Amino acid sequence: MARIESLADLDLAKYIRPGDGIVFGQGTGEPLSLTERLVEQRRGYSGAGLFFGSGFSATFQPEHADHLRFKGIGGIGSLRKLSNAGVLDPVPCHISAVADLIGKGHIRTDVVMLLVSPPNARGEHSFGLVNDYLRSAIARARVVIAEVSSQVPWTPCDAPLQPGEITVAVHSDRTPLELPPAKFGELERRIAAHVAGLIPDRATLQMGIGAVPEAIVSLLADRRDLGVHSGMVGDSLVDLMESGALTNAHKGLDAGVSVSGVLFGTQRLYRFAHDNPQLRLCPTRYTHHASTLARVKKLVSVNSALEVDLTGQVNAEAIGADYIGAVGGQVDFVRAAVQSEGGVSIVALAAAGKKGDSKIVSRLSGPVTTARSDVDVIATEHGIARLRGLGLRERVKAMVGIAAPEHRDALMREARETWGGAC
Prior knowledge:
Elements: E1 3-5, E2 21-24, H1 32-40, E3 48-52, E4 68-72, H2 80-84, E5 88-90, H3 95-103, E6 111-116, H4 134-140, E7 143-149, E8 168-172, H5 186-196, E9 204-207, H6 211-217, E10 227-228, E11 232-233, H7 236-243, E12 258-260, E13 262-263, H8 267-273, E14 279-281, H9 284-287, H10 290-293, E15 299-304, E16 307-309, E17 314-315, E18 318-319, E19 322-323, H11 330-339, E20 344-348, E21 360-361, E22 377-380, E23 383-386, H12 392-401, H13 405-419
Parallel strand pairs: 1-8, 2-3, 2-6, 3-4, 4-5, 6-7, 7-8, 9-10, 9-15, 11-13, 12-14, 15-20, 16-21, 20-22
Antiparallel strand pairs: 16-17, 18-19, 22-23
Helix pairs in contact: 3-4, 5-6, 12-13
């Protein structure tokens, strides 16, 4: 049985050792009462290392690196301040690989901190808002510390957390973090109009969060029998369900059920998810695994990018030394969508940044997240470029055609310097 402790009396140094590796629920699944105490008491286990997925809280600050070490899959959300300060060490990896990296000890995991629901009649806890690589972390950990919050929904999953798996439980009434839907404007609507035209009835959707995905979903109310199989979902899942567009009837697997790894939304989504048999949270070993994705029909994958070069190479991670994104699940779903029966992979981005700089570039300023050999469709507000099967010179012309008009001449000149007059 788990040991029950009050938050006021919780001394984490009894459970965390100097140099330990700590994994905790990412994003909206961060156990805030525990992570705040973790920071407060950090001198008691100096040298402990934290692994981050995404972060939306203000819990961790650069100055906390005096006793804690930080690394994670990217500078997503509030983690960007850690990255900018040079105290977050990015781990370039696919989301589908994180569970194995933990299981094989490449990501050290001695302590796991979780935010979970109250127990059911059998004493089991739901993972609530996040069920991605946590099961793998629990299997590896010496200590599992759970914040059991009355405000966390019971979300269906295949393997609820058993009471014997918890070392220490702390009860709270803490409201989970919320991530409101991103607001979108005319620019995002124009991008979405091109993307929505590629999404047919009975498509199975994988989309991230942000203004462009929100704009896309706003155009799908007239679709029929859509499905969802995604690494993450937000409040727009509720919009699709309420519009009647989402039934999950023709996915090829998990009929009638929307599948995701995490819920990144607000109380509206959390209330919808509570004890809802039409939704299931699954580990990344399922959501992102190639054998699972191979069964999905009409998979439409929509991902974002910081920049794309003229041959289709995608950078979704960093601009120079500024690490603001992540590899995430992009490559997992890009590859799966192009193999899916009736599927399509789309990378959507604005043609230019807020300062007017082109996001369609002749040479990437950061790493290649998705190789040009995997890319299918690139979409901007100026149209779409279907790159599969095109030669490099053909790709250049297609990409220049969806770049911001004021940058097209310069891009073509730069292309000719590389590819010659044929461009």
